[in-house]
Design brief:
Number of domains: 1
Distance between the termini: 30 Å
Order of helices and strands: HH
Radius of gyration: 20 Å
Length: 78
């Protein structure tokens, strides 16, 4: 039974998973050691803007990897 995905599909899929993981890693941190003290580092650019964009790029990459169809070369001689 032949797989419906080519090698490029799997590479794109793994790249998408890596981007999502990187996005979640970028979101980590910024908490305070003391729950009574507010740490404004939780609202910095990396956690509020960059990390969600990286996660979204990962999800888009996964969708592209699923929808990608390699070009089929036809041997028909018309």
């Amino acid at each position: 039974m032949k797989s419906p995905f080519a090698k490029k599909n799997y590479i794109l899929f793994l790249a998408g998973i890596a981007l999502i993981a990187l996005g979640y890693i970028l979101m980590m941190g910024g908490g305070s050691e003391d729950p009574e003290v507010f740490n404004p580092a939780i609202f910095d650019f990396r956690r509020i803007t960059l990390a969600p964009i990286v996660c979204l790029a990962g999800f888009v990459t996964i969708i592209v990897s699923i929808m990608w169809r390699p070009a089929v070369i036809s041997n028909d001689k018309n």
